[in-house]
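Priority: low. Protein: SusC/RagA family TonB-linked outer membrane protein. Input follows.
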Amino acid sequence: MKNKLLKKLLLPLALLLGSFIYAQTVTGTVSDASGPLPGVNVLVKGTSTGTVTDFDGNFEISANNGDVLVFSYVGYKTQEVTVSGNTVNVTMAEDAAQLNEVVVVGYGSTTKKEITSAVTKVDEEEFNRGTVNSPSQLLQGKVPGLSIYNKGGNPNESATIRLRGISTVGANSSPLIVIDGVIGASLDNIDPNDIASMTVLKDGSAAAIYGSRGSSGVILITTKSGKAGSTSVSYNGSIAASSISNKVDNMSPQEFVDAGGVDLGSRTDWMDLVTRTAYTNVHNVAISGGYDQTTFRLSTNFRDAQGILENSGFKQFNSRVQASTKILNDKLKIDFNASYTKRDSKYGFNEALRYAVLYNPTAPVYGVDSPYPFNADNFGGYFETLGLFDSFNPVSIINQNLNNGYRTEFTYSANFNYNVTDFLDLTATYSEQSKILNNREYYATTSLFRGSATSPFRKGLARTYDRDDKFKLFELYGDLTLDPTDQLNIKFTAGYSWQQEEYFDKFLSAGDFPNNDLLYLNALEWAQDLRNAGFIELNSNRSPEQRIIAFFARASATFDNAIFVNASIRREGSTKLGENNKWGNFPAFGIGVDANKYLELNNVDLLKVRFGYGVTGSLPSDYGLSLPQYTPTGDLLSTNFTRAGNPDLKWEQKGESNLGFEFNMGRLGATLDLYSRKVKDFILERTVEASEFGTNRRVENGGDLSTKGLELSLSYDFIKKDDLTYKSTLNFSTYKTTLKSFDATTLNGNLGAPGQNDTNVILVAPGEEIGQIVGPVFNGDVVDGSQQFVDLNGDGTIQTSQVIGNFIDANEDGVRDGDLTVLGKGIPDFELGWLHQITYKNWDFNVFFRGAFGHSLVNNFRVFYEPRVGSQGSYNLVNTKYADPNITNAKFSSLYVEKADFVKLDNLQIGYNFNIAENDYIKSVRVSLTAQNLFTITGYTGADPEPALTDRGSIDNGGFLPAYANPLIPGIDRRYNYFASRTFTLGVNVNF
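Result:
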């Protein structure tokens, strides 16, 4: 018994002693392709013995020969190494799971690795932060080649969106929007809080599957959805304060008087009176969840967004429903989406900003404060400088007049996906969308601005505009997936698409009211214009039912998980085109090769080379352009033939090739795209021979342009620890667009009144780069108040009139006929976006810089109001660093064309995630503070250095802004632009 007891005691003691005798200290270094890795977990497999690498990646652990060490780190593949000695060095490989990330493309999805086109996906965590009132703002600066500018930041204006520059001249130049598979869905009918990801199809091979609407690129939006297993409630709320970030430098009241201005006795800061600290409230509540095969998400969004201009901003209610279920033994999946938006807008009057700059700073706000005789009833009590051209009290404009809008939108879609077999799926989608827009303007009988209060015959003005748009979509397609061998995977997609849209609008303008008691709501019948023929304006339009019908097919193949091929064809017809050219074909082809599969480079996860080519199109923006047009005259419609029909009118066509390179190695990721595109057959209204067509106007195809560009994206994870991460992403893009052929060589971009009505400054000419600013060169001398210009052609005379003849070399002798030259260009040479994402324990930091370089702007405020014109003694003067008191005659020149390069801290956010004790109610709480447009580094003296990519023309105080913005006329900083703001936002997110 004693021996047995002794054995039981000695055996574990011997084992314990043996562990001390045979255990050894194992040391080593853990690194990745970029160097040592701190914070890596090192564990002896099957035990609790473990350690962590230090700052230099070194570790020390006690282990026996034959033990297995497990190395694990966030973002890297877990690695196991058997101990055979006292030194173990490990190089860890990046977990390349992101290469298998699913990316939505046209009519389906694929993995990131298999894509053969230029496609960029931006997830929610990469979106811009803070007060974002439009989905397009989420992407600003995030995608190389995608330019998004809302110059001035008017909350009621949509941003100008350009993908790889100008893709069309006479059609829609903004990318096609596809929301949850609905082609042509409204970007205004989705709240930014409901977006999960946005995918940009940049090149022709990716967009060709969308045919005649893909030339300007495609933005695919995927909304958030519910998850089965639990029900969750989230609240996102924020309050923001915005203030004007930069003003146009003008004279103070005392400077104005000292310079000889007319002193009216007051000292007034007009800009301060028409602007404000604007507050924005955003509230979003979402309920999501599901059970078994059914999921749902319901969200409600409310926005009350003020603009920095008094009486501008909007209130918006949006609600969205998403539901998904599976039936018929899980073979049929049904997805339903619906969205409703109601927005009430106060557009205000941008002109108030313009007159706040130029109005006499010594004038009083109210007439009772004026030392001059004044009848307060004439102008509602406001002081007005009568007898002066283009001079209106800005406070009176804001307070006396109304400019409001009302918009409602409703969209729903149902998607049915039936799994016929393991390799065959059928998908059907049906969607309808309606949009109703109502605009209302009223100019008081006492308003000098547009109300014509000084006229004894006509006082006050009311305008109404109503539009109703309807849209229907039906699509049916099938997916066939085959795996003929272990190394070959093939997928076929083929389908049919039908879309119909129509609209109705009407416009009414009437004036001369007895008083302001009823405003415009019930007062139209009181308009005295009813007694006078020719004063009332009335117009209405109804489109025919415009249809698009298409048949499409696509084949994609993957070989050896390294060679990827994609080809597609879409045949599409549209009733917007001429009878002889309703149908067109849009082919595409792409190939990609993961070269690293065969090169087997150390620590490289992906080295892909891809090439794609695709043909896309653009349809006319307007309806009925191929049909003859008549304008009513008296009782006879047919007697006034204004535009000839064109049965041969066809779509604009773009052919684009793209060569791309993708590289992933550990923490480093890079994408480079080189592209070349040619657009032809612009849809333009032209002057034709009346003897041939019966009238001198006709819409025809003609002209072409070419664009060459480069896009680069670099990302690097500088730090990847459990408690600390830091990732930086840099986006770079550049392009050049040349107008190859056109039916005219002209100078466009009329600067306007007063005094510059014949001044056109933007060159539009075959063989020339788009966006060149043309004018005379100021030589620095001023004689008798006038700038002196350089004799560029050396002929002894100065020819500087803004006509094309003074720029071109008509007789081709190598010398220009006049003395105009290129002073700059309106399109940037390159654009940058630089994102920094940092997390530290519960904190997260997001810093985003954005810049554009190489572009210039015609500073219109300086052109008109900087010269010390003697006759303008009652107008304030712009007073920048370029102002020369000796210049007393206004004349456009190089003096007013400024380089507008800028870098701005566009977005800075600091967030904190609270540690919430486990409970049945609150799951997480996060608060954040965001600053937008915090500072801008630029030499430009205007209000906003961002490029003006389009132009709406010279607009005086006479009416509505023109709907058409000309992409051939970039580079003019107009006087009607809104002023940029700086915004601070406090936000909170609570998940229940």
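The first strand starts at residue 24 and ends at 32. The two ends are 66 Å apart (CA to CA).
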